[in-house]
Amino acid sequence: MSITIRPITAADRPAWAPLWQGYLEFYKVPDLAAEITDKTFARLLDDAEPVHGFVAEDEAGALLGFVHYIFHRNTWMIADVCYLEDLFTAPQARGKGVGTALIEAVYGAAQRRGAPRVYWLTHETNKTAQSLYDKVAERSGFIQFRRNFA
To answer: What is the residue extent of each domain of the chain?
Structure first.
């Protein structure tokens, strides 16, 4: 399978939307407000935003997956770091190098930007993804805590 990784464009919205919905369903958030999805996609296209995205497509131009990432300040480093926030591949594309290619694209973007680190989170039950992540990164040992207000 030939995979092309490229920045997301406005024309990708119709093919990105079902992938996004699959991602939300995987994380048990199937009813995210449409306005949040709309704003997320708009941010991915806005050069003034720190949010960016790549898509993976096959030789026929079908989208196989996406990755969204954010550059932000860090109190332990001078340069911005890169948070890989969302990564999803279509079920039929899993195990074919799409996830690795998308992560590598983020690594490239981070290096071009001068970011000293790319990091991300995954759910502790997502063992399939963890088997990939163990090959392309190291575990930090940190555990996330959170308190939601809305």
So the answer is: 4-136
- Closest by Cα among 52, 44, 50 to 13: 44
User: Average pLDDT over the chain, rounded to whole?
Assistant: 94
CA distance 6 to 8: 6
pLDDT per residue as tens digits for the range 35-48: 999 999 999 999 99
71/64 Cα distance (integer angstroms): 24
List Cα–Cα distances, 50 to 25, 35, 78, 82, 113, in angstroms: 25, 19, 16, 10, 12
Q: With beta carbons less than 8 A apart as the criterion, state whether 64 and 98 touch.
A: yes
Looking up tokens 């392309």 gives 136
Phi-psi region of 112 (alpha: psi -120 to 50; beta: other; left: phi over 0): alpha
| Arithmetic mean of pLDDT, 98-103 | 97
Q: Tell me, which fold does domain 4-136 have in CATH?
A: Aminopeptidase (3.40.630)
Residues facing 61 on adjacent strands: none
